[in-house]
Every structure is written in C-alpha cells, then in structure tokens.
Design goal:
The complex is a heterodimer of chains A (175) and B (496). Chain A is mainly α and 175 residues long. Chain A has one domain. In chain A, strand 1 and strand 2 form a beta hairpin. In chain A, helix 1 packs antiparallel against helix 3, helix 3 packs antiparallel against helix 4 and helix 4 runs antiparallel to helix 5. Chain B has 496 residues and is an all-alpha fold. Chain B has a single domain, classed as Sodium/glucose cotransporter, CATH 1.20.1730. Chain B is built from 20 helices and no strands. Chain B is globular. The chains are: A mainly alpha (175), B mainly alpha (496). Chains A and B meet through helix 1, strand 2, helix 2, helix 3 and helix 4 of A and helix 4, helix 5, helix 9, helix 10 and helix 12 of B.
C-alpha cells in the first residue's frame, strides 16, 4: 500500500470519527453527563448514575476509540518505508493493534457489566474495569514500542540507511 | 528531623536552583553558535535526549494539576497519561528520524525551519512560528505563575519570609530560569533536564510507596472508600464521562508528536540510530514520574471522603497537603525540588522554542536571508520573552487563561498533521498545511473566547484536532500539484 492510499485510509477514519462525534452531539444528554458537584465537598465532583449517562453513547464511544487505534496503526505504517512493510511487519503491527483493541474492549465490557450488575471485584488496588484501564491499556502501548525497538534496523533505520544518508549529506553540502 | 521539615524542603529547592545556575555557567562555555544555543549542535547522547523529552512532557501541571484533577474528578484524567506509551511510539515512528535528517541536511535550528524546507513555503513557516509564540506565551506565563505560587507557599511557612509577596517570588524564580537559559541556551536546558528527569522518576516511585501506606488496607482500601461514596469516580471514565475522556486520550496520546518543545529535542541527538534507545527510556521515565499524579490524587480524595483530612479549598492543594502531612521531610524535599524541576524543564524548553520562533523564524518568514549576531539576539530575546510572560502572569488572569487555551491541544491540532503526516507523505501540500494550522487556531480561540460549550464534554481542542487531520489530508488531496516542486534533497530524505 503506497503512502497516498494509507493517507486515504487515515482520512476515511477521520471522517468516520467526525460522523461519530456529530451523532454523539445529537444524542440527548443526561443531567450528569459531565459529572455533578459533590453534595458535601465543593472541590470534588461526582459521576452519579453511570448507566444514565454512559449507555446512550456507549456504542458510538467504543467505535470512536477503535477508529482512533486503527488510525494510529495506519499512521505508524505511514512512518515506515513502503518497501520495508513486509508481511512480518503487517503481522507485528496487526498484533500490536490487537493488543490495544483487546485491552480497550475488555475494559469496556467490564465497565458495562458493572453498570448492569452493580457488582465488581478489586484487582491490584482498583475495581476490575479500572484495573484493565490502568494496567492493560497503559501497558498495551508497549507492543508498538517493542515494534520500534526490536524492528528498528528492519523498519526504521538500517546500517545501509546510515551510509546512504551520509552520501546524501555529502552531495547536498558539495559546492 | 520532623522539626526541621520546612528547612529541609527549602534547602532541597535552594540546592536545586544553585545547581541550575551552575549548569548555566558550565554550558555557557560550550555555547558558541546559534546552533549550539537552539539545538545543542546536534551532539547529545541518547540518555540525555530521552530524559529531556519526558521531563519536558510532564510540566508542573503533572505534579500539581494532575493530582488535583484526580482529587476533583476521580479517574478521568488518567486518560491524559495512559495513552502516552502509544503516543510516544507514534511520534518516534513518524517524526524522530525525518526531523533529524532534515535538520542536518538544511542546518535547521527550529521546527518552522523544518516545515519551511518540507513545504517550500514561508507562509507555513510563519504560521508555525506564530502558533509556537502564542502557545509559548501562555505556557510560560502559567509555568512561571505556578513556580511563584509554590515558592510563596514554601517561604510563607518560614519566619523570615512569612510576608513575601507573589511579585518577589516571580522575580526570584524567573531570575534563575532566565539565567541558565540565557547563558547556556538549550545545552543548559537539556542537562538540567537530565537531573530533573531523574528527580521526577525517583519522586514518582517514592510517592507511590508512601501513598500505599496511608490506609491500613493499602490502595485497595482507598479506592473502596471512594467507590462507596461515588462508584463512577473510580470507574474508567471517572466523573467527567466517557466522551471527555476520549478527547483527552486523543489529544494527549496522539498529540504528543505535535508538541514543539518535545519534537525539537528529536533534532538534537548525535545519531539517528540512538532513537532506538531514546524511545523506551522516555516512555519508562514518563511512566515512573506519572505515578505521583495517580497516587496522590486518589489517596487525597479517599482521605477527605473518609473524614481523615479536612476538605481542600481547591483541587491544586492536593499535592502540597499530601506532602506536608504524609511524606517524610526528606521525601517532601525531593518532591518539591522535583516540582520545581518539572516546571522549569517545561519552561526552559518553551523559552527556547519561543526564542527561536521570534529571532530566527519570523524574520526568515519575512524574507531575511541572514540574521546577524543571532546568538546575542537570541540571548536578549530569551530575557524579553521571559519578562513578558512573567508580567502577563502577574498582571492579567484573563490573558493567562486566554493564552493557556492555546496550549497542548492547539499544538497537537496545528502541528501534528503538518509535521507528523507531512514528513511522511510527499502528497501533502502547503495549502493543506495552512488550512490545518488556521482551522485549529480558529476553532480553539473562537470556542474558548466565546465560551461555546459542546454536548457530552466534547472540548474545542478535541474537535480542532480531529478536524485538522481531516482538513490537512483532504485539502492536500484536492490541491495536488501537477509538477513535483519538492527540493531534491528533501525528496530523497523522505524516501528513507
């Protein structure tokens, strides 16, 4: 896939994000959509009835984030030379996207389950959905860091690139 | 030791400031040219660049505003942090290699230099410089004000300086900042950043440990206390709600690669191959430092709800209160030094990119081919810029707030597509770049000045960022030139 086609995909993702934001803006908003002042402490806010404000936009918000993660992965592909985007690269990038999307999806489903049942367990200091947010979503980004670090010479900057760049510098600085 | 708490904290801060002055004097001997002053002569090692990048990211906001947001809104602001790993990786894939190549090919000293070379457009250079100057004034004013407020609260606890004014604190803190930035330029800035970054990492880990000891049941008990009061506060989207959180995730995650004070540092490393080390060190350093943001805010909210602490007068009191009550004097000293470090590392980075925009880019955008006495002018403008920002901070709350709106989100919206996508896509045009920058500035300023609210907490910055990416690519597709006008060296650099 050449750079222009990748940019077209990023554009389509962006347009879909605009569409989703537009649909969200048209949804009737619950009173506590952005939280309410805490009844006892002025410097705090409370969320109140989570289901009332979350469930109407739950699907739209979920897909917005999936589009964002897809957009990020397309942009990462854009940063790699087209002839270096081997099958191996696409598999590794796909796996990184899978990690990001899986962490987001499990966190989201756990939160929806909590809103319906009102029950959750504590995991490593946090309620189960928040534990997925704090640990899994944060750590899932390391898939992309690993792709950069371990694939550096194959996808980003090889020894041959260094030599060719030195040649380019010499040519461009020559009188 | 407890009896000398105030003295220990003040000593830590004073030692840190003396260190900054010493580094300024040392760096002055290594600063011989504008290139040394603005981009450290492209001579920095990977560890220095990595620590400088992450410490510039986490400003005083991370140490004071961040814990305050968690105290006030619960888990919501975690979304400003947790996509940082993804955002840094994106920034390195898209920007780190190409910006360094163009910097060396064209002897570029600033971000506007790079985009002017890429798009062959002085209009793009001017708009980029204008965005940077506007954003820098806002950021600098808020950083200087934050520094002065913290200093006043520290000195106010002593007998000798109990009545010290805010103006005096602004003068003292700005003087240290100006001194090392003027004498040592970016070299002083990045080497102080190294120590600043180390302090921030240590402070983050120690504070997390301290926070887990406050309740007998550890962190679990703290979150359970919050949950019994309002479950939403410790659920993934906190009290602010899902859409506001997605906006923060987008702006603070993807937008990392649009921050001028960060990406400029990607021009400074000695070798492009060093980026392989810079990325993981930056990401891990940031994660350690951000632990302070998460832990203090959560524990302080639980303490107030549980009745173990008086309600705070404002969210920004969360970190100072926690440190004054729960941290040992030595740890409080380290963290307060870390707080000054965080503020200064961001302020010095902004001072540097702002000076470059004013002294180097604006004249070039208006046709200047050579800038005489650039190093001297740079030093003078650094002083002028800092004094202006300090004055704005003291004189006008409204102006600080207005300029503050042109902060992270505007940088992300205006700079990310033009730089990160534009350096990797030969089809990007200067018309696309101009539309992206103008639209993001317009949306942010108009929505914030007119106080236009959007449903579901959709922020102006969020809207501007999504829109600018679409407009940049869309307009570029519509304005493709029939003949390739890109310079040969840039053309070849973009093929790597």
């Amino acid at each position: 896939m050449n750079q222009s086609r990748l940019c077209l995909v990023i554009l389509v993702f962006g347009l879909l994000q605009c569409l989703l934001l537009g649909l969200i803006a048209l949804m009737p908003a619950a009173e506590n959509v952005g939280g309410l002042i805490h009844p006892l402490f002025n410097s705090m806010r409370v969320g109140g009835d989570g289901a009332a404000r979350f469930l109407p936009v739950a699907d739209l918000a979920y897909w917005f984030q999936i589009l964002m993660l897809g957009q990020v992965c397309c942009m990462i592909a854009l940063g790699v030379r087209p002839d270096r985007r081997s099958s191996r690269f696409w598999v590794q990038l796909g796996a990184s996207f899978g990690l990001l999307a899986a962490a987001w999806t499990i966190m989201y489903q756990a939160y929806e389950a909590f809103l319906i049942s009102g029950q959750t367990q504590m995991v490593a200091g946090w309620p189960y959905p928040t534990a997925w947010q704090v640990y899994a979503i944060w750590l899932s980004g390391f898939g992309l860091v690993a792709l950069y670090v371990f694939g550096f010479k194959a996808y980003v900057w090889s020894d041959d690139d260094e030599i060719q760049f030195r040649e380019l510098l010499e040519q461009s600085k020559a009188p | 030791m407890e009896a000398f708490r105030q003295e220990i904290i003040l000593s830590s801060v004073v030692i840190y400031m003396v260190f900054c002055v010493a580094v300024g004097l040392w760096a002055m001997r290594r600063t011989h040219s504008p290139s040394d002053f603005f981009i450290a002569g492209r001579s920095l090692g990977p560890l220095v660049v990595a620590l400088a990048i992450f410490s510039s990211t986490l400003s005083g906001f991370g140490f004071v505003g961040g814990p305050g947001l968690v105290y006030s809104q619960g888990v919501s602001s975690f979304w400003m942090i947790i996509l940082s790993t993804t955002g840094y990786a994106l920034g390195f894939f898209l920007v780190a290699k190409r910006i360094r190549m163009i910097a060396e090919l064209r002897d570029a000293m600033s971000l506007p230099d790079v985009v002017a070379a890429r798009y062959k457009s002085e209009a793009v250079r001017f708009l980029m410089a204008l965005t940077i100057v506007l954003g820098v004034m806002g950021y600098l004013a808020t950083q200087i004000l934050a520094m002065a407020v913290v200093m006043k609260s520290l000195l106010g606890g002593t007998v000798m300086f109990a009545d010290i004014s805010l103006i005096s604190c602004v003068v003292v803190s700005s003087a240290v900042l100006i001194f090392y930035c003027v004498t040592g330029g970016i070299i002083a800035s990045v080497y102080t950043d190294v120590v600043q970054g180390a302090i921030m990492m240590v402070a983050g880990v120690l504070i997390l440990y301290t926070a887990t000891q406050v309740f007998d049941g550890g962190f679990t008990e703290a979150t359970q206390v919050i949950m019994q009061d309002d479950a939403e506060a410790v659920m993934p989207f906190g009290t602010a709600g899902v859409i506001a959180c997605l906006g923060w995730a987008f702006i603070f995650g993807v937008g990392v690669a649009g921050q001028p004070h960060l990406v400029t540092k990607m021009m400074m490393n000695r070798k492009i191959a060093d980026n392989r080390i810079v990325l993981p060190v930056s990401v891990i350093g940031y994660a350690f430092a951000a632990l302070l943001w998460i832990s203090i805010g959560t524990v302080m909210r639980a303490l107030v709800i549980d009745g173990q602490a008086e309600p705070l007068t404002g969210p920004d009191q969360a970190a100072p209160f926690f440190l004054s009550v729960f941290a040992s004097p030595l740890l409080a000293g380290v963290v307060f030094a870390g707080l000054f470090a965080a503020i200064m590392s961001t302020a010095d980075a902004f001072l540097n990119v702002g000076t470059a925009a004013l002294i180097h880019d604006m004249p070039k955008a208006f046709g200047a081919t050579e800038i005489k006495n650039e190093l001297l002018k740079a030093r003078i403008v650094t002083v002028v810029l800092a004094v202006m920002a300090a004055t704005i901070a003291l004189v006008s709350d409204t102006l600080v707030a207005l300029l503050g709106t042109i902060g992270w989100a505007t940088f992300a919206a205006a700079i990310f597509p033009v730089l990160a996508i534009g350096l990797n896509w030969k089809g990007a045009t200067h018309q696309g770049a101009i539309v992206a920058i103008v639209s993001s500035l317009s949306i942010n300023v108009v929505f914030n000045v007119a106080s236009i609210g959007l449903p579901y907490g959709i922020s102006a910055g969020f809207l501007a960022f999504v829109t600018s990416i679409v407009l940049f690519i869309g307009v570029s597709f519509l304005t493709q030139p029939k003949i390739d006008t890109m310079d040969e060296d840039i053309h070849r650099a973009m093929a790597f």
